[in-house]
Design a protein that fits this description.
The chain has 1 helix and 9 strands. The model is unreliable at 5-12 and 14-18 (pLDDT under 50). 11% of the residues lie in helices and 32% in strands. It is globular, with a radius of gyration of 20 Å. The protein has one helix spanning 2-21, and strands at residues 58-67, 77-81, 107-111, 117-123, 134-141, 144-153, 171-172, 174-177, 180-189. The strands form 2 sheets. A 5-stranded mixed β-sheet has the order 3-2-5-6-7, with no helix packed on it. The chain starts with a helix and ends with a strand. It is mainly β.
Amino acid sequence: MERRHFLALFSLIFTTSLKAKTPIQLTPEQAEGPFYPVDRIPLRSNLLLQTEGLIGEPIILQGKVVDTTGNPVSGIKVEIWQCDGQGIYSHPNQPNNDMFDAHFAGFGAVETQSDGRYLFQTLYPVPYASRPPHIHVKLWRGNQELLTTQLYLKGNTGNEWWGGKARDHLQFETMRIDGRLTGEFTFVID
């Protein structure tokens, strides 16, 4: 009887240690797109310059940056940029950019805290042309670019052409917390 317990305990410890060493899948890369901001993206977590008159619905986008073992990574600059609620980017190459919603900044950046967390107050992404709703993201460690990708709304990713299978790992769900629309995504980097 004792031997059986010892073997069960040993297999539990061995299995747990194997699981702990199994790396988490890296967040897939995707194209930067044509509208990466021309100027350096400033540190600002609130992309909503004014909510009264804003075209679109505010959303809190939050989450973590972790390494492949699940440990939080601090000091990572997380940049986001996206179109406004009309599908227009704040970029000189964007047709009709003079119609960009002045209540929305269009881009911003934060640095992850000691627990790897980041948070933005931005807009619920909207589709434009044939693109599904998405938010562009770039992660930096100092001057080293670590990741460029895009985040999609769960269940609203468009066809396979936009991101293929990688897109399945780049989705986030939204929920209402205390009346505020919120989405969460964890980035996994080397």
